[in-house]
Amino acid sequence: MRxxxxxxxxxxxxxxxxLDSAPAGGARSRVAEFVVFGLKQxxxxxxGAALLAVLMAARLWYPDDAGxxxxxxxxxxxxxxxxxxxxxxxxxxxxxxxxxxxxxVGTVMELFKTDVGSWSYEAEGFLRIGAVPLxxxxxxAAVGSxxxxxxxxxxxxxxxxxxxxxxxxxxxxxxxxFFTHHYIWDARWLLLAAVVTVFGRCVMHFRxxxxxxxxxxxxxxxxxxLFIWIAENIATWSGAWLYPNQVDGWHMVSPDKLVSxxxxxxxxxxxxxxxxxxxxxxxxxxxxxxxxxxLDAGIGPASS
Length: 304
Description:
Blueprint: H1 6-19, H2 26-44, H3 46-61, H4 70-87, H5 93-115, E1 128-129, E2 132-133, H6 135-153, E3 157-159, H7 164-180, H8 188-199, E4 203-207, E5 211-216, H9 217-237, H10 257-275, E6 290-292
Antiparallel strand pairs: 1-2, 3-4, 4-5, 5-6
Helix pairs in contact: 2-6, 3-4, 3-6, 3-9, 5-6, 5-10, 6-10, 7-8, 7-10, 8-10, 9-10
């Protein structure tokens, strides 16, 4: 089982004081599972949630005449959030490696996309590379943070996971297509078909509290992509960046972006697999898709 951080272990132990007395069956049991699921998801999103909160606060309250440009403030705030995540042991150093990789991969894409006019940032501040403020890389890092944390918090396991070299080839093709489609034929629909074909048989197994559940991995990709699209709408509303059709007035990001985020999930999964090699389920599940664990199974991996 994958270990909690020391802070998460303390939280897990305290949570048991309230949850161990919950019934193992019936409606109250399902309510407990639902609540724990929501709390775990919120905990996994803590980096991204903190960053979104800063973006919204800067939009609403950051003074226009401040001596420090808003983009520079956002960059410094993102650095502080990342330092606190590691210093308070909410993230491990091992996880930080893949988060930094997300940061680099995202910043390279940002440099290209802003150059070709796919989106733009306010031209202010000194903490930037070309037209890209440095806080932009932290938005990709937030996705990486969520991925590695949810992998650990829910003790993710996978049945019929494709060979990692195949997933790496598809992820590389997806990443390259984000650049080349500006000049040659856009292969996103072909890549989308490849993703569904390769990952279509894979099932994700995850533990909430006492029960294990399963979900098609492709559906999990779609749900996370939808979540990121919602967060993207909040970020563009805050003025963190704007698409060309939002310059004259904000409106919702096109649903077409869901395809881009869905494909980006493949890159994310491959990067996370570099830290956590996908493992098969340890407990055989029944036909209903869930398994009841012993009462002392715990909320997460560290308690097992």
